[in-house]
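Sample entry copied in:
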Amino acid sequence: MSAIRRLLRQAEYLISVHNRSQLPPDQGREVAIAGRSNAGKSSLINRLCHRKALARTSRTPGRTRQLVFFRLDDHRHLVDLPGYGFARVGGDLKRHWKGLIQGYLEKRQALAGLVIVMDVRHPLKDSDIELANWAGSRGLPLHLVLTKADKLGRGKQSEALLGVRKLVDANVGVQLFSATSGQGIDELETVMADWFLGSADDQSAGRSESPGQ
């Protein structure tokens, strides 16, 4: 078993953060998983970590309301960000979520990369583009994952993949993924290995020179 698979299979729930004061110490390396509500974030995390119920999945979009930290070892964490783009919450709660997520993404020095999860049938909605553009302006390594690929035939998959690649910077990784079939898991593990296990010479304050590669 590869080093990154061993690391990911060690994942365990650590803490759900509702306020920035609850964040774990800002050290080591973290990879954040973001995406619109119901895009398949929890299923991706469970498949990536070879666990059935590490991250909670729900038929109700927008259920994740905190930053959920999963410990891989003493120095590495996966972070599940609250889903965005779902309207059935009050204005005050929306503002709180935005402030929590924005503050984390802007100030977290341990953040080594950001994965944006999108349903392959509905990629690059306005909120996805906004987050991707922001990550690019900060210089944060970015990887786009088009989930639920098993819902489309091979031709439509390729069409969707090429369509997204044409719209993003060449340094941004884009891939297809299916939590059901396991399609794309090797490619995603390669990205995780780069961000979590890359040499210190390749990173500065948790950042990589070759996002999503």
